[in-house]
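Exercise (ungraded).
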Amino acid sequence: MRTLKFILNGDPAEIGVNDGETLLEVLRNRLGLTGTKQGCDQGECGSCTVLIDGQPVLSCLILAIRVENRQVTTIEGLAEGGKLHPVQVAFHEGGAIQCGFCTPGMVLTAKALLDRNPYPTRNEIRTALSGNICRCTGYTKIVEAVERAAEVISEKADG
Amino acid sequence: MAEKSAYRYIGRNKPRTDGLAKVTGTALFSADITMPRCLVGKILRSPHAHARILSIDTKKAEALPGVKAVVTGADAPVKYGILPVSQDEYPLAVDKVRFVGDEVAAVAAIDEATALHALDLIDVCYEVLPAILDPHEALIRDDVKIQERTQEANIERRIHLVFGDMEKGFAEADYIREDRFFKDAASHAFLEPHSALAQFSDGKLTLRTSTQVPHYVQRALSRVLGIPAEKIRVIKPVLGGGFGGKGEPLPLEFAASLLAIKSGQPVRITHSREEVFLTHRGRHPEQMTLKTGVKKDGTITAVQFSSLLDGGAYGSYGVVTMIYSGQLLTAPYRVPAYSFDSVRVFTNKPPCGAQRGHGGVQPRFAFEVHLDRIAADLGIDPLEIRYHNAIEPDTVTVNELRITSCAFKECLDKAAEAVDWKEKHGKLPYGKGIGLAGGFYVTGAAYPIYANPMPHSQVQIRVDRDGGVTVFSGASDIGQGSDTLLVMIAAETLGIPEQSVRVVSADTETTPVDLGSYSSRVTFMAGNACRKAALKIRDRLLAACAGQLERNQKDLTIAGGYLFEHGKEEPLMTFAEVAVLAEAAGVDLCAMGSYRPPELAGSYKFGGVGPSPAYSFGAQTAEVEVDTETGEIRVTKIHCAHDLGFALNPLTASGQAEGAVVMGFGETVLEHHAFLPGGRHSGPNFLDYKVPTSLDVPEVDVTLVESIDPSGPYGAKEIGEGSLHPSLPAIVNAIYDAIGCWFHDLPLTPEKVLAAIAKKKEAP
């Protein structure tokens, strides 16, 4: 057991963790942040995606102790001051959510894509999301939602 | 029924009512809910495909510090099964295990590591028995019995039905063709692993579980555990996809309950991804033979179908799968004479059950490819032969299925137009092709799983003094959006804003019975029940207003949350004021609505499986590119035209079709639920079992075709399952158009494509 210090959704966090505990286990079991989902625990489905220093990472594959002093963003921390991120709005309004189990990972992956590439092509969106499995939607409305979010973000930037 | 444009809420795109919770991470799925003193449960599974259990010693496991309870088959040696005719499962194995992964024992401990350690300490002594993995072997091996209840070899059930004059049908045919097909197993692969959280206190069991069927789970728990149903509460939290795989009581639900009762503490069991694949209940592998007679002009005169279903180790939904597989070939084309012989056998593999499009998917693939081959042999365009034989509205099929609304021809038109069929079919360069297929599906089964005369769905609506309305429904929203539809239907019928309506659903203690989310029944049945309850409340409110305000009731209406008098623009009062007025006048502001399908059973044995109060119809065209060097198949686009009666919520309806088409695409070219020689699953994970990713999928274009069903809620029928059926054969037919090779075995692999191309080159 050792003490882990990191920034969680913008706030300082300090918690005792075992050496072998994954970030996913610590988020869900110790911190009660159940928005991060466990779909396979093998790094194959993308449901557990969180952002570490802005980059999408599979939290089931990374040990918690590796995030010492780093910034971790989970789905619970994406909305700022109660205001939803444009990707969240686009997913909701565009019907890109069905069962919702893949949604947190999908939204965070999309957010990271738009941060580094505000004007992605459809193929770039599909490539960025290819590590996140969705079994409900067939991806049509998810890809459209990311395109819509990109438009909204660029309109804001221009305006 | 009012004109569509007169509707204020239904018929318009509405985001899901739980969408914001899901997109912010606050939606609680079964595995997200915790309780004080909650233990972790784990299941010990069989390492053998078939073995007798000689002894189980749990002493060492029980002695491990941190272990709070251990249970085995001896704790609940009562059989259950979703179908009354297939009661062949135990919560945990009694005497025998029948597949690698069969549940043997379960432990509850203070944490996962302790629970897993305890599993290692359970000593099970097995006598290994010969295992049968091949369904053909299961047909004839009498010396090995997987289920003791089978009479002949390992045959669970046979069915033989004949409709119309087969001899005459084939005698009248100018051309007869016979083909064999095989569709391998597929798995639901929902993202949320099964999870069940059981709590037992004061003699009452509460189970929060990822189920599509809370009512059936409650019934099975009561029977197996010997606890009265009134002392069992089953709650479905937010559910992460089912597709049939959470559509029946499952071992983990019993195991968690038994452990909670024994330990006196809450217990949660969540499956690992491997356990999800082993629990299975997915698509049956099915061998099929089709023989069809046609006139020169393509008119179908007779169809003969036979199939062998590999059921795995237990009954599950399999008998229904088997009957559906034959019953659902008599539309969407006119078939004057039809017969089918089907048989389901047991093998030592995970049990197969219901998966999206249940029963109809494999035969639909076979028939639509078979029909294209007949068309090719006769030089008839595949669109023409389908149009020529297409079923019309208000007809009865040869096996007595009552067809009411039907826009199949319009679906064919839309799907064909979308690919410029007449200009392109047969005319694209080598390696590129387009293909067409049709289909139809039930909108709910006309009969419940256990025979009873009660409604299939009941909905209760309560109006509060503040004008808020609560809809109580047992229907399970499993991601398809049924809670949202109930809000829309209640708001439309009552004439109040959608924001005033909330839904409480899928909790056996607080909501009236709905049979569950299976066979595409929820929109139709719960929707009808909801509309009826809302109509009752509306009439009561208007009657109270008429009396108190001394107006004629038929001159009053509620719209947009206000009471109006016809012909006057200014409202009389708000809906909240209406509620207060009515409540003060002593009116009961709580009403039930119910739905039970009419009597539709055929006049023959098994005639209760297949009938539905309404059928959806659909047609799809696929565009493919085949790399003739590598054998790689690229499905670039699928156009889906689906007759769903009326699109209550086009946003979620089109989403259902998009998802179904992609699931069908996955089954055609990627997904393979396969087993190693000893009966072990070849790859129970997402690396080996290839679910389509965003890079694999075709572009999907959905056209919602509306036929306004006479008995659907506001004319609605199903879309979530029927829209999967045509995808598989449309792709296979498109590949023929691209490279001139037919495929009768799915899934298709690049190896199969290359072999077919090579064979064609040898013998053109």
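Further reading is listed at the end of the chapter. For now, observe: The first helix of chain A runs from residue 23 to 30. The longest strand of chain A covers residues 2-8.
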